[in-house]
Design goal:
It contains 9 helices and 8 strands. The protein is an alpha/beta fold. The structure holds cytidine-5'-monophosphate (C5P).
Length: 228
């Protein structure tokens, strides 16, 4: 067991994981792992190399040598670089999310990215956002949060988020995209999306972001993670 504390935040798309994780990491002064970005980056790199998403051998090779950097100091949020190129916007499209979910269903790809994710566990602590953070990547995490929300509310949030980034999206098509992606994430053979046995489950359908952040922070205080 590592002495460096980890908080995992898992859940389906649009459940609020990203916003809550960023808020918590900033509030605590801890590192942040957006594990979904790694799968999205791999999908994007595969596209740039014209790789088929079913070419497991080459996808694994690509995963092992993915050249990525995150700039967390920018006022516009996290800026993500793939082989030196700013891909922050391309990473957020639904097409990229769909391809990410396809490569994420390949067990060998998940294994190739495992140690890379664990390397984010650095002092003073880590907030890890994803689907299997509490179940597979950091099973010994001090606090595991699993966020849910109704499918309609999640689609509405994702729609608003994309619009804010200037990415146009149709709400009905987006709902269908999210439904298909959640189904694939929940039913895949390895690391399916599910709460860890000891996770705290928060249904955020009728909660504002501030309330969710506060609920998560109250748990951090109860567990005295800051003084651990
Ligand atoms: O969280 P985000 O929407 O960026 O994730 C994109 C896709 O990456 C998810 O739909 C899921 O298939 C995959 N993913 C995963 N395991 C994680 C994080 C993301 O399988 N820990």
């Amino acid at each position: 067991m590592s002495a460096i504390p980890v908080i995992t935040v898992d859940g389906p798309s649009g459940s609020g994981k990203g916003v809550i994780s960023q808020w918590l990491a900033q509030k605590l002064g801890w590192h942040l792992l957006d594990s979904g970005a790694l799968y999205r980056l791999l999908a994007l790199a595969a596209e740039k190399h014209s790789l088929s998403l079913s070419d497991i051998v080459r996808l694994v090779e690509l995963a092992q040598k993915l050249d990525i950097q995150f700039d967390t100091q920018s006022a516009e949020g996290v800026i993500t670089f793939l082989a030196g190129e700013d891909v922050s916007l391309a990473l957020r499209t639904e097409e990229c999310a769909r391809n990410a979910s396809q490569v994420a269903a390949i067990p060998e790809v998940r294994t190739a990215l495992l140690e890379r994710q664990r390397a984010f566990r650095q002092v003073p602590g880590l907030v890890a956002d994803g689907r299997d953070m509490g179940t597979v990547v950091f099973p010994d995490a001090e606090l595991k949060i699993f966020l849910t929300a109704s499918a309609a509310e999640r689609a509405r949030r994702r729609h608003k988020q994309l619009n804010q980034k200037g990415i146009s999206a149709n709400l009905a098509a987006l709902s269908e995209e999210i439904r298909a992606r959640d189904e694939r994430d929940q039913n895949r053979a390895v690391s399916p999306l599910k709460p860890a046995a000891n996770a705290i489950i928060l249904d955020t359908t009728h909660m504002g972001i501030d309330a969710v952040c506060q609920a998560a922070y109250t748990k951090v205080q109860e567990l005295k993670l800051l003084t651990a």
